[in-house]
Amino acid sequence: MGKKKDVSAAEKQQIVECLGQGMTTINIAKKLHRDHRTIKKYVADSEHTRVRADKGKLRTLSNRQLCPVKRAAAKMPCHSSRQVFEAAGASNVPRTTRCRVLQRFAAVRKPSCQPPLSTAHKQKRLQWAKQYMKTDFKTVLFTDECRATLDGPDGWSGGWLVDGHPMQTRLWRQQGGGRVMFWAGIMGREIAGPFRIPEGVKMTSIMYVEFLKQHFLPWFKKKNRAFRSKIIFMHDNAPSHAAKNTSASLAAMGIKGDKLMVWPPCSPDLNPIENLWSIIKRSVYNGGRQFTSKQRLWEGILSSCKTIQADTIQNLTIQWTREFRSSFRTRGPMCKCNIT
Fold first, then answer.
1. How many separate helices (H) and strands (E) can be counted in the chain?
2. What percent of the chain has pLDDT over 90?
3. Distance (Å, rounded) from C-alpha 160 to C-alpha 268?
4. Interhelix angle for 310-330 vs 273-284, to 10°?
5. Binning pLDDT at 50, 70 and 90, where does residue 173 land?
6. What is the DSSP letter of 213?
């Protein structure tokens, strides 16, 4: 004879109410139309849960039924378990069983991201790699703009919570509650900036040049002549960066010719400063932190940058250079993803 089903949540509540009224377990069993032994067992140990008889082994799918599931999973990468099982002709399998079956031979992964590269883009990236293969990247000032919101990334707000402890609440605001734009650069063992971009400013060529004159140029002039003579300035191909007015203004500052790095289009993955943004945001939004004002967010960004050690900044460029050169010699030019 098979085992009877466990007492449901509604039946458990009725048992508690009947016991409060002074009813015996026999009368409760008659009222609920359940076996007397089931009621007695629940009353004796209300926290008892039935142990699976199969000890975790799957009984719903045979090895023959697994074959179409494996074929569907191989043909449909990064699809949900429901989609895979429906393609395999097993649409009535519960979600728990689907996940446990797929865990035998698969794992949840996110697709790797890379910019949309055309053939022309790949050729220009290849030319850039060959041109700067022997460059000492310790002399390159990698720059870029970054955006930070008051709420931070949604995926960073979760974490472990002890049973019984209250769950924290997060503010829900449109557009992340507001944002702060800032500019920074890394070179060798130091950070240039960060410098905050005024709110509401559209970064045109004129505004970009004015921003560099107010923030970058004073930092640049404080350096000695040897430093200024070997620096190579890098920025991407944003419209405000690639404009003729910007190039002429940089030339007036002494940044022209070999001192201005030619950057390939659609190549944010080649800029090591992207790793700096990750370090800053991990510190700023530590523990799912949110901010109530843009000024406090900016203060958090400044304090986070002050805590970054010089060795960390240097390793960003050293590790990037090592991976770039080794990958170019072995599999072709790449950094995180293959250039070609």
1. 15, 6
2. 32
3. 33
4. 140
5. confident
6. I
